[in-house]
Model the fold of this input.
Amino acid sequence: MLAYPEDSYLIQVGRLAYAVSSLEWSVLGDLTHHASALPAALAIGTLAGQTTGKIAEKIKQHLNAVQDNAVREWLKTSADALTEASIIRNHFLHARPATIDDQQRLYRWRLTPNDAFPITDQWLADQIDRIETLSAAVSTLRVK
Done:
């Protein structure tokens, strides 16, 4: 039988996953509005099935091909935000269940680099705040 953490913890995990997905969609969804200004490699159909990090990489690879300065600035900010979000996302999605201070929590453990830490309630709250800040930065530069 699985040992689950309390629902409030799972809600925060879900909220963070949703925030990252929302950031991704805010970028992908706006690509269609700028299709004529973008290289084919940045078409939504080529990016939609990619991971957060891969979307960011593709955007960065093709930034110089975007002639519109405002769209290029929005894309650069978007790619930077997605890069940071991908690191956050990978930490909690690749963490494993552990008992920490008598509570079920996720625990991120990577040998290379030597990196291990619990995914605490505070960590989740901090990352949700960070994704919301990144989303606001992307939204502020939206080109209509």
Summary: The mean pLDDT is 95. The radius of gyration is 17 Å. DSSP finds five helices and three strands in the chain. The helical segments are 7-31, 44-47, 52-61, 69-93, 121-140.
